[in-house]
Design goal:
With 317 residues, the protein is of the alpha/beta class. It is built from ten helices and eleven strands.
Length: 317
C-alpha cells in the first residue's frame, strides 16, 4: 500500500468542508484544476469515489463520509506533531534573557549555564547585572525572562521560585581578635565592609543589627564579593558574607569565619519571573539547574570556624 500524499488529504478535507471547488481552491491557494487533479489522484489511489459531482453540486459519497473522519484525524495528528517539533526547535534555537545580582553572576550562573548549554547549545543567553528592584521592573516590562537574586519583599505580579538558603557570617582576618573564643564583639565600632546599600543583602544586615539596638556604619560598601574578601584578607575591616563564598580561603587559612550569634541571619535565593505566565521548558530546566548549583554550593556554608556563645556577646552601641 502506498502512502497517501498529505496534500491530497488537505485538498479532500477542504472540499468536504466547502463542497465547492472554487472556495476550496481559494482556501488552499490552488487553482480549481489543481484541486480536481489532486482529487482524481486520491480517488485513483484509494480505488473508490469520494465525491458525487454533477453540473450543479458536489456531495460526499458514503465512502467519502467515512474517509473524511479518518482524513481529518490524520491531519490533526500531523499538525500536532509539527507543532511539537517546531516548539522543540524553538527551544533549542531560542534565547534566555536573565537578570542577576553580582554574586549570582560570579558564582551561580557560570556553573548553571555550563550545564544548560549541554541541552540547549544554540541558545542565546543575555545577562543583565542589576539590583532586584531593577529586575522586577524589567520583568514587568517583559524585557527579561528570569531573574536570580536574594529574595526581595513580595511584589505584585512577581512569582518567586525558591532555590536555596545561606547564612551570613563575619569574615575576618585570621589574626583578628574576634577569632578568640572569649572576645567581645563591638560591631558598631568595627570597620565593616558590606555589600552596596541598594542590595537586598545590605537591607537584611541593617535590619538584623537594628533588632539588637546596634546601628552600623560601613567603612566600605561595594557590590563585589571578591573585593570584600580581598579587603578582609588585607585586614582592612570585617566583612559579612556566607561561608560558601570564602570556603577556599578559609580552608587555606587566609580568612576566618565567625558566627553572628544564636540568632542567625539567613538569606533565601530565588528565581523571579512574571506570575502571569507559565515557564517554558528551557526555563524550567534552567531553574532546576540553578537549584542544584545553589544547593550544592551553599551546603558548604553550613559550618562556621568560630561559634558564638553567651560568653562573647555583640554589644549594642
Amino acid at each position: 500500500m502506498t502512502t497517501i500524499d498529505s496534500q491530497y488529504l488537505r485538498v479532500f478535507c477542504a472540499l468536504a468542508r466547502h463542497l465547492n471547488m472554487s472556495r476550496a481552491a481559494q482556501e488552499l491557494e490552488l487553482t480549481p484544476s489543481g484541486i480536481s487533479h489532486c482529487l482524481k489522484a486520491l480517488e485513483s489511489d484509494l480505488g473508490c469515489r469520494l465525491f458525487e459531482r454533477n453540473s450543479r453540486k458536489i456531495s460526499l459519497t458514503p465512502a467519502g463520509l467515512e474517509f473524511r473522519v479518518e482524513a481529518e484525524a490524520i491531519l490533526e495528528r500531523m499538525g500536532s506533531a509539527r507543532s511539537k517539533l517546531r516548539s522543540w526547535i524553538d527551544w533549542h534555537r531560542g534565547g534566555l534573557r536573565l537578570a542577576a545580582s553580582t554574586t549570582a553572576c560570579q558564582y551561580l550562573l557560570p556553573l548553571a549555564l555550563r550545564e544548560f548549554r549541554e541541552s540547549f547549545p544554540a541558545f542565546t543567553i543575555q545577562i543583565r547585572p542589576c539590583t532586584a528592584q531593577e529586575a522586577i521592573e524589567a520583568i514587568g516590562e517583559e524585557a527579561i525572562d528570569l531573574a536570580l537574586f536574594v529574595e526581595p519583599a513580595p511584589q505584585g505580579g512577581i512569582n518567586f521560585i525558591p532555590l536555596a538558603e545561606d547564612e551570613l557570617q563575619f569574615l575576618v582576618h585570621p589574626l583578628h581578635p574576634w577569632t578568640k573564643r572569649r572576645s567581645q564583639r563591638d560591631v558598631a565600632k568595627e570597620k565593616l565592609i558590606l555589600p552596596e546599600r541598594n542590595s537586598e543583602t545590605h537591607s537584611l544586615i541593617d535590619n538584623y543589627f537594628r533588632h539588637d539596638g546596634v546601628r552600623i556604619k560601613p567603612f566600605i560598601e561595594i557590590g563585589n564579593d571578591e573585593a570584600i574578601k580581598e579587603f578582609v584578607r588585607l585586614n582592612l575591616g570585617v566583612g559579612l558574607l556566607p561561608r560558601w563564598i570564602a570556603t577556599t580561603e578559609i580552608e587555606q587559612g587566609a580568612l576566618a569565619c565567625v558566627s553572628l550569634g544564636r540568632r542567625r541571619l539567613r538569606r533565601r535565593w530565588s528565581i523571579l519571573h512574571n506570575a502571569s505566565r507559565t515557564l517554558a521548558f528551557p526555563e524550567s530546566v534552567f531553574v532546576n539547574l540553578c537549584r542544584s548549583v545553589a544547593g550544592g554550593l551553599m551546603q558548604s556554608g553550613t559550618r562556621c570556624e568560630q561559634s558564638l556563645d553567651g560568653r562573647n556577646p555583640i554589644k549594642a552601641a
